[in-house]
Specification:
single chain, 0% strand, 160 residues, 8 helices, mainly alpha
Amino acid sequence: MNLKSICSFSPIMSNHLFAPSRLDMAFAVWHRSGLVYFQDLFSDDSFVSFTHLCRDHNIPKSHFFRYLQARSFASKHFPGYPCPPSKDLAHSVLNVNPFNKGAVSFWASVFRSLSAISGRILSPNPQTAIFGTVDTGLGFSSLHKNAVAMRRCMPAVSYC
């Protein structure tokens, strides 16, 4: 793969675009401290200070030079630095809670957009590949009746 762009969900540690993280295993300390992605280095309104990292993530003070490396990298690769990166499609996609109402609709719109961008129908249909198919011959009411019937046939079990 020849990936040359970066998004806020790019990892700090072992990032092929951020050479210091490949050469210096001290970034593993950052990873274990919760600083996993470049977005973790931004607060709601700016790039976080080294004091903040030391206080909130227990980063050793000896990592100041590494902080400067990460800050320099972020300033060159994230437009609008020191403000946090804008919430792009990757951010939206990676933050979808699959259990929230509307998640399936969200993914359906993403797949429609991908089909429109590519100019062809995606095959196999990504929705079917991810969510599977629903046998329309079995409605909810018949499944519910079968479940109720099975519970009536099972012996009562009590747990102490």
